[in-house]
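re: that chain from earlier
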Amino acid sequence: MAISRATLGNMRQNLVIALVTVAGLLAGVFSGDIHMAGGMLVHQLSVLIVIANGMRLLRVPKAARRAAISRETQASAAAART
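^ sequence. v structure.
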């Protein structure tokens, strides 16, 4: 359940990052402050930020890891009894 909440929060964060980046780039293009190369650089950097933000979900807290190992041990013990 915790990973679901974390994933949903991460998706919201990534959407905000993407929308703010696009809004900033559009404002820069319309004002003439951002050119093609600069816009591409900013976009690629925002993509890397979104990827790094998503990779935070790969970190599993120790308590969750212990609980998963405990569940696996209990399941294997129950299977051995049958």
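The mean pLDDT is 87.
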